């Protein structure tokens, strides 16, 4: 009996519990760090391999937020500032993030050999369904910038059932005209690839001021080891086809268009807005945002993104923490009837907050 009692006493002492607890904490910390840094994958598609980074759990029943970067950028340089922004974390913790890099565009990618046949924008869009299948997501909310906005638009038009919402920053749905083609030909002779991309990414004011952000990206592109890949992606974007979007042939999901009021693609975004269904489209023109509002104005874009997600029925209890307090937002909505009537109204949001989010058909010009 004494021996049995001694054995029980030894078992109850559990001398390894402290170490086990430490190991559990270390594992949890490692998991949190891994989720923050993202898990990198190489996803095989029918048209080649894509580098994809995923943040968060894959078990969410909500759609994933799927991003695609612009020419001259990759997922980190295009989206890290926005998705690591403090007030964006409320969204990040509720959704899985999937960042897609265009073929060979990821940081440190090996350069393609001379004569490599780079996929067209249309072909890259056809690679996205394989990414959703790989991560077992049925639907996504797309966030694209420039070339990435074009690619996600193409994907959405071909796979409307896979996209619940679309945020398009600096979208240009048109193929280049002869004047644009001639101007680009001249630019390719007189300007380096780096300067061509900077003119695509930034406003003339930003380039003239040579802001710190411009200098950072000039240095990054110039020193990129995969510069030939970047050039191939850029040239194929310049050779894009017209998306042929019209009111009766457009996106089936809610869309938010975003552009800076001095951005190179401001006119193109305005034109795109005129072609979309006004009952499901929001147009956000941001003051003092330059060419890359997701980098220069992450607070404003985060707040607008929250409104957009709430309009889709997600995060209904989320608090609007910036634009709705002690700021004034000018909201104007317009419509046309038989091409001859229009109306507009403004709504001032004071320090009390509590206003309802703008309806999908409104145009928001944020000047705070």
Structure description:
With 368 residues, the chain is α/β, with parallel strands linked by helices. The protein is built from 15 helices and ten strands. The protein has helices spanning 2-13, 17-37, 75-83, 89-92, 121-125, 128-135, 147-158, 178-190, 193-201, 204-209, 212-223, 227-238, 266-275, 293-296, 298-311, and strands at 39-45, 48-55, 64-68, 97-101, 140-145, 163-169, 255-260, 281-286, 330-333, 362-366. It has a ten-stranded mixed β-sheet, sandwiched between helices. The longest helix is centred in the N-terminal third of the chain and has 21 residues, at 17-37. It is globular. The relative contact order is 0.11.
Number of strands: 10
H/E topology pattern: HHEEEHHEHHEHEHHHHHEHEHHEE
Give the mean pLDDT: 81
Q: What is the count of helical runs?
A: 15
- Rg is 24 Å
* Sheet of most strands: 10 strands, mixed
| Outline type | globular
Helical/strand content category: alpha/beta
Main sheet: strand order: 1-2-4-3-5-6-7-8-10-9
* Share in helix: 40-55%
């Amino acid at each position: 009996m004494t021996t049995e009692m001694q054995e029980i006493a030894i078992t109850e002492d559990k001398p390894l519990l402290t170490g086990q607890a430490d190991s559990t904490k270390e594992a949890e910390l490692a998991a949190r760090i891994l989720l923050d840094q993202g898990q990198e994958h190489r996803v095989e598609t029918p048209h080649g391999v894509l580098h994809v980074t995923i943040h968060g759990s894959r078990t969410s029943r909500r759609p994933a937020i799927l991003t695609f970067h612009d020419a001259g950028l990759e997922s980190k340089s295009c989206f890290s500032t926005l998705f690591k922004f403090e007030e964006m974390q409320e969204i990040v913790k509720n959704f899985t993030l999937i960042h897609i890099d265009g073929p060979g565009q990821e940081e440190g990618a090996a350069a393609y050999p001379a004569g490599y046949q780079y996929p067209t924008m249309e072909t890259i869009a056809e690679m996205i369904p394989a990414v959703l299948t790989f991560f077992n997501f049925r639907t996504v909310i797309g966030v694209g910038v420039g070339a990435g906005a074009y690619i996600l638009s193409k994907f959405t038009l071909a796979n409307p059932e896979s996209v619940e919402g679309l945020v398009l920053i600096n979208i240009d749905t048109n193929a280049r005209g002869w004047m644009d083609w001639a101007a680009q030909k001249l630019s390719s002779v007189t300007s380096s690839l780096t300067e061509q991309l900077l003119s695509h990414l930034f406003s003339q004011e930003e380039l003239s001021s040579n802001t710190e952000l411009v200098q950072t990206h000039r240095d990054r592109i110039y020193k990129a080891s995969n510069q030939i890949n970047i050039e191939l992606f850029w040239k194929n974007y310049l050779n894009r086809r017209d998306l042929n979007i019209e009111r009766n042939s457009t996106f089936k999901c809610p869309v938010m268009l975003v552009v800076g009021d001095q951005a190179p693609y401001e006119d193109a975004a305005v034109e795109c807005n005129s072609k979309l269904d006004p009952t499901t489209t929001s147009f956000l023109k941001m003051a003092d945002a330059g060419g890359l509002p997701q980098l220069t104005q992450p607070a404003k874009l985060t707040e607008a993104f929250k409104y957009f997600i709430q309009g889709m029925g997600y995060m209904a209890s989320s608090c609007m923490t910036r634009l709705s307090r002690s700021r004034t937002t000018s909201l104007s909505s317009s419509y046309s009837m038989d091409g001859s009537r229009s109306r507009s109204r403004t709504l001032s949001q004071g320090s009390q907050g509590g206003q309802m989010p703008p309806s999908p058909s409104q145009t928001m010009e944020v000047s705070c």
